[in-house]
Amino acid sequence: MAEHDNDIKQENPSLSPQVGRAGGMAEFAALIFSLGTSTKTNDKLQALSTYFSHANEKDKVWVIALFSGRRPRRTVNGTQLTAWCCELVELPVWLFQECYHTVGDLSETIALLIPDNKDSSTYKASHSLHYYVEQFQQLEKGTEQEKKTFILQSWQELSSQERFVFNKLLSGTFRVGVSQKLMVNALARTVQLEPNIIAHRISGNWAPATTSFEQLLSEQSTQTDFSKPYPFYLAYALEGPLQDLGEPTDWQAEWKWDGIRGQIIKRNDQLFVWSRGEDLITDKFPEYTILQSKLDNGIVLDGEILPYNDGQVLNFNVLQTRIGRKNITKKNLQEAPVGFFAYDLLELNGEEIRHWALSERRAALEKLVASLQLSWLQLSPMVTFNNWEELTTIREQSRSLNSEGLMLKRRSSAYQVGRKRGDWWKWKIDPLTIDAVMIYAQKGTGRRSNLYTDYTFAVKDGDKLVPFTKAYSGLTDKEFAQVDAFVKKNSLEKFGPVRTVKPELVFEIAFEGIAASNRHKSGVALRFPRISRWRTDKLPNDINTLEDLKQMLELYGK
């Protein structure tokens, strides 16, 4: 079961559905495995539609929550699960670890090691999905013994397939390859609402444990959530030539900023700040509090939260010092000041205006931002150009402005839901690259659990090799198999799951940014590193040096 693939796949016949089980957790587990093994969108759509047509009402609410990123908090860790499983099946830890390294997934390893109870009366005791998930929540502050008792009991009443899904839920690693758009379309087949209305209804700050399916999606629903954001409109990467877009005058160009996409909402005299991942982050940015008094009610701004000071957009690395902190100190505010670059206006005077043309929304946005007179609240500036050739030249300035490239938006476009082709395109600059040699390898997880696919790379520093980054994506399946064969034949040392290998294979590593780091031996940390290509045309002596990395840091790490 591949976690790297962000998908649950049925790869082991031992996890096949149990005959005679239906409803509740069994029905949910069957849905998960159906979605994981389907390759056609229509098949996934049908599986979801069937589930929403027949499932328990409370279970349906939890499926919506889980599939839209509202996973329950992890109540136990992997070490505890391992110990309890070993105790239950009377297995030494070393043998469990061997099984785990072979299977490649902790949840699946446990599901396979615990034998199914053949007593059909025990099967009938398994509960609904909402029972298990809500028990997780109640046990969050429970004692370790209370958690252990609940988990052991659940393991023994569930089938192997259900147990696998149960483990994923309680360990916080539940992920399934279903887009929110697909789920919304499936729901649209079972409720009398348009997909865009459903997408808006299921966003925001609602709690699945206390929200009914009718409250959430009934046509007559009167629930009021003043914090509710709109689904974000996302762009596709530009693939063809600019000339295919038609007349340049039909398009608005903006810089593609590298920050946190967010919405600022003022309703009912309350201010809310949401990230694109639907995290409510109001408390993370106290600088925005002034908008509670300056904005009228019924305003929704879409834009980018950026590190910003003295009229200049700073490197994203500055913002990272604030991400993940529970409490923002005065020192954090001084060292990592933020601004908000407004892209769009989605609601004005309490009226949703997403259907307006972009040019109309932009005009209203310009008027609103100008009236607020806040130095940190900026309009995302439009890039003026006369033809596509001129815009191509302008794009080369992106990195010097701490921008990732350009956004192209059709002036007549409405603000849509999700990722749509045709009206909004992102035109990113090429990533930074450096040639490096592989020095360590580790087996992957899921379907790659028997292959060495996770690598550590090094650059030269005189006659030494200095590790500087890891990467596990970017090669084809055939190339991964070839590198795996090399690792097995050329291992020098073994440290647990990691092998030191002969420094002979050269790869081009691509990355989006670089920052100074005290935690890394090289003194640098890369943003979004991945393998760009296998440089079979180069030898280890041809790789880049630590000095090259430091020069990149000087140029692009500010």
TrEMBL record:
<keyword id="KW-0235">DNA replication</keyword>
<keyword id="KW-0132">Cell division</keyword>
<protein>
    <recommendedName>
        <fullName>DNA ligase (ATP)</fullName>
        <ecNumber>6.5.1.1</ecNumber>
    </recommendedName>
</protein>
<keyword id="KW-0131">Cell cycle</keyword>
<dbReference type="Pfam" id="PF04679">
    <property type="entry name" value="DNA_ligase_A_C"/>
</dbReference>
<dbReference type="GO" id="GO:0003910">
    <property type="term" value="F:DNA ligase (ATP) activity"/>
</dbReference>
<keyword id="KW-0233">DNA recombination</keyword>
<dbReference type="InterPro" id="IPR036599">
    <property type="entry name" value="DNA_ligase_N_sf"/>
</dbReference>
<dbReference type="InterPro" id="IPR012310">
    <property type="entry name" value="DNA_ligase_ATP-dep_cent"/>
</dbReference>
<keyword id="KW-0547">Nucleotide-binding</keyword>
<dbReference type="InterPro" id="IPR012308">
    <property type="entry name" value="DNA_ligase_ATP-dep_N"/>
</dbReference>
<dbReference type="InterPro" id="IPR026333">
    <property type="entry name" value="ATP_dep_DNA_lig_pp_1105_fam"/>
</dbReference>
<feature type="domain" description="ATP-dependent DNA ligase family profile">
    <location>
        <begin position="331"/>
        <end position="461"/>
    </location>
</feature>
<dbReference type="InterPro" id="IPR012340">
    <property type="entry name" value="NA-bd_OB-fold"/>
</dbReference>
<dbReference type="Pfam" id="PF01068">
    <property type="entry name" value="DNA_ligase_A_M"/>
</dbReference>
<keyword id="KW-0234">DNA repair</keyword>
<dbReference type="InterPro" id="IPR016059">
    <property type="entry name" value="DNA_ligase_ATP-dep_CS"/>
</dbReference>
<dbReference type="InterPro" id="IPR012309">
    <property type="entry name" value="DNA_ligase_ATP-dep_C"/>
</dbReference>
<keyword id="KW-0227">DNA damage</keyword>
<keyword id="KW-0067">ATP-binding</keyword>
<keyword id="KW-0460">Magnesium</keyword>
<keyword id="KW-0436">Ligase</keyword>
<dbReference type="Pfam" id="PF04675">
    <property type="entry name" value="DNA_ligase_A_N"/>
</dbReference>
<dbReference type="InterPro" id="IPR050191">
    <property type="entry name" value="ATP-dep_DNA_ligase"/>
</dbReference>
<keyword id="KW-0479">Metal-binding</keyword>
